[in-house]
Design goal:
The chain has 73 residues and is mainly β. The protein has one helix spanning 14-23; strands spanning 27-37, 43-51, 59-65, 68-71.
């Protein structure tokens, strides 16, 4: 007898990642998903480009599990 467990989609949105970036003093520009996993613990890692600074390569990484997002870097 096989047990089938439905996989849950990584349901975090770029808007949730944007709010974490703003709270971290990053004026968000382009937001792109770097990694997305599905299953019992769905997770998405977003790369959020910060605008308005002198350097063009400033970004933060935001990890979201379900709808809870935290700053990684």
């Amino acid at each position: 007898m096989a047990l089938t467990v439905p996989t849950l989609p990584a349901s975090a949105t770029p808007a949730e990642a944007r709010s974490v970036a703003v709270a971290s003093n990053c004026k968000p520009g382009k937001i792109e998903p770097l990694r997305q996993t599905v299953g019992n613990s769905p997770e998405t890692v977003f790369k959020v480009m910060c605008t308005g600074g002198k350097s063009k390569d400033v970004f933060v990484l935001v990890q979201c599990r379900v709808h809870q997002c935290v700053l990684l870097r």
